[in-house]
Predict the 3D structure of the following.
Amino acid sequence: MRWKPIGILLIILLLAGCTTSRYRRAEKYLKNRQYNNAIRTYLRILEPHMRGEKRYIYYDREAITGIASVYWQMQRYNTAGLILSSVIKKEPNYGQALYYLGMCFEGLANEDDAIRVFRRYPYVPPSDPYRNALIGRLDWNIRRKISREIQLALQNEEFLNLEDLPEKSVAVLYFISLSDDPQWRPLQKGLAEMMITDLSQIEELKVIERIRLNQLMAELRLSASGMIDEKNAPRMGKLLGVRNIVKGSYMVMPDLRMSVDAGIYESERIFLPTTANFEGNLSRLFQIEKELVLRVLDNFGIELTPQQRERILKIPTENMMAFMEYCNGLDALDRGNFESAQEFFLEAVRMDRNFQAAEDWIMPADMWAATHNRNFRRVNYEVAELIKSEKGKIDIIYVPPEKLISTRDRLLWMSAYQNAGFLPGNETRESFQEAELRGADVLPQILGEPPKPPTK
């Protein structure tokens, strides 16, 4: 009965076409600024009806979010926000609703709430096309806010008072590389970023973003070694708005042994209340960083819940080379070289497909440019156009490295990517042909054509 699967497939395609066309007319009205007609069209999809003495509508998240987008275009941001909040209450990880809610707060000049909404991107599924828009707009808002706050702090530096700063506040400066080999220098930002990410899991602790640190360095024309200088520590703390600073250094030896030295400084007094020195193989870097984070939290007298400890102790990647690519990507971003950063982040994800921190930064240059625009109405238009044209997301195709670094890496690759590209079914194509169509054409080159099965 071959007709059954074909019949089901045709029905699905027809329904998908109907679903798309349901919103197309409303979107056309919206594009032509016929707002009342757009709202009426969306309402027909929701089928308002009376039940008893009450008025009801059917739940359709695309249609309800569409109505909110109409009100957003009409600059009725409060109304749009109320509608979007009802969707997010039901589906808190729906990317389009979160995106428009953040844009509503931008329209109301409520920057802090916009950032708070955009920060929820980690909970949005990677397949959601609005996830990248949330990340890009978050980055834009944070950079603009930080730049303004740093300028204000510099103008009022003489009036900054330590007593006005939160007791449980900390900035993590870039670690200084003491290694002779320059290839390990990018770790200075990667180590700091890991610590900042982990410490930010604790709500009662104010942690300064790496972007703020980087912008202050640029403003003061300081290098990483200049920031860690004890003469600059008090000033850095005040300008960053924290009482405490974590700073340190690391060294990677030729045999890949590693040592990390770090301490917590109170920003107005130069003394070291607690120090930590860790040694081990470079592969233990992530465990070393976790131990250092726990030491910092213990210094603040913060007791972790089991859930907080689990989140903090989560290892972002077990592939050291993938982490190095990620560190290079952060450095390229800080230098304003988005294209180069993308190459590094893509390589990191190719080495470890579960490296979410690196994958979060991967997006088309068009989407990055669209979300980094002062005119937020222009942002909305360009983001919507990119998502409609399906250019808002990059599909990552795994390409194994030319030379596998170790037996362990080879085994990990083999276990993760065996059967790559195989689709079960009644197929006449040979497996390597299938693999090639699925983007794994490198497999025949590495493994060779398998022998033909015996005829008897």
Observations:
- The first strand starts at residue 49 and ends at 51.
